[in-house]
Amino acid sequence: MTSSTDPSSPGARQSLWHHRNFRLYLTGQAASVTGSSVSSMVIPVLAVLELDATTAEVAWLTFLCQLPPALLALHAGALADRHSKRKQMITGDLVSAAALVSVPVAAVLDRLSLTQLMAVAAVQGAAGVLHDAAAISLLPGLVDRSLLQRSNSRIGSLFAVAATAGSNLGAALTALLGPARALLGDVLSYLVSAWCTARIQAPESRRPATEGRRLHTEIGEGLRYVHGDTRLRTLTLVNATTSFALALLNTLWALYLLRSLALGATAFGVVLGLGALGAAAGALAAPSLAARYGPGPMMLTALAITPLTQIPLLLASPGLIWQSAIGAALFLQLACAGAAGTTQRTIRQAVTDDGMQARMQAVSTWLTSGARPAAALLAGGLGTWIGVRPTLVAGTCLLVVPVVVLYRSPLRSLLDMPGSPSVASPSAEAMPPPTPSQPIVPIPQSP
């Protein structure tokens, strides 16, 4: 598929930065990521240091942040394949901005509570599901499939830089304005994202009329589509198991750093910023690493390194040396995540039909996000029962599971990026896409 608005044919050599719609897309999403990084840094500080949240309350806050994708991702994906993706993105941005602005308003009135913070997190999460389901699936319609790997690499690296800026900005705004008012930075980012999305002029392909078709029927099609392709099924399972392990770790990560290791808000923001720089480096290096070693071996190596990067955190004690070690380990961990994530996303987009893009992404989001609330509750229970550090050890052990999943699949030896669904991949013999003669295990449709 070639973009209908940009000269991005397979043979084009023009820089992606010359594509107006891609620039607008990238600018808007980067602004949103910057703001979200402000919130990611500020909300734990606000909950732990300002509202004196307990371990269980922190776990519940994380649970409510992560519950909406598990409940709504499949529906959001089906809606994005039915209707305008850009309108869905703008709606999500504006709802998120409205929810977040209530926090500094409540703080000014001295009415802010942990209950309100949890409600805002749930609303923002639901709006984010609508936005993300459309945003991720919009990219293959803006650039040619031959440019997807380069596009995802640029997106991943710029998003990581934006996350670094957001973490540092969050620390600065927290010091200058206080944590509640610092969230105004995220409110502004959502407005910028909505403005940029509204200026994208690429016409969206329309699916055949869907009158008379129920939404759950189309959701079931997406589930069966992903399950019927070995590549999509494997990468979705890798994402889900990785997400579960990281969600368990991340639920208590901020609490552990802020309390047990006595990091201040500024040091916490700097550590997050180092991790984001690692994600940028990994995303930029992904195309060359995949070309040199093959996408499969590269992803397998990145996943195998990830559990090792948790060792400094598990051994750490308060002090600048350990803070530096944790920052360096997080840099390496997110470099691996950036390289593997960029590559697996490109593979999934490249092998998926145009009319299934949003639903394919939604299935991955649903399973990935569905693992997070359960992991958050498990982390809260284990953290209260056996302690925070032993729970982090358990989460680190779980990071081995996605390594095993990928190693046991044919994807581990994938040496070339696949082509579009209508073009055979150089490595497709080992992993054929589903055909009418292949049995597809039925998956129950969503009610």
Short description:
Helix content is 73%, strand content 0%.
Quick one: biggest sheet?
A: none
Low-pLDDT runs of 5+ residues are 1-13, 422-447
The SS-based structural class is mainly alpha
Distance between the termini: 33 Å
Q: What's the shape?
A: globular
Give helix and strand order, one letter per element, not per position: HHHHHHHHHHHHHHHH
Report the radius of gyration as a whole number of Å: 21 Å
Q: Bin the helical content.
A: over 70%
Q: β content, as a range?
A: under 5%
Mean pLDDT: 78
Biased composition (Pro residues): 431-447
InterPro entries: MFS_trans_sf, TM_effector
Subcellular location: Cell membrane
Protein name: MFS transporter
Note down, in words, how this protein is organized:
It is built from 16 helices and no strands. By secondary structure, it is mainly alpha-helical. 73% of the residues lie in helices and 0% in strands. It has helices spanning 20-50, 55-82, 85-108, 114-138, 148-177, 179-182, 184-199, 215-228, 230-260, 265-293, 295-305, 311-315, 320-350, 357-385, 388-398, 400-407.
Label this structure with key terms:
mainly alpha, globular, disordered N terminus, 447 residues, disordered C terminus, single chain
What is the fold's blueprint, element by element?
Blueprint: H1 20-50, H2 55-82, H3 85-108, H4 114-138, H5 148-177, H6 179-182, H7 184-199, H8 215-228, H9 230-260, H10 265-293, H11 295-305, H12 311-315, H13 320-350, H14 357-385, H15 388-398, H16 400-407
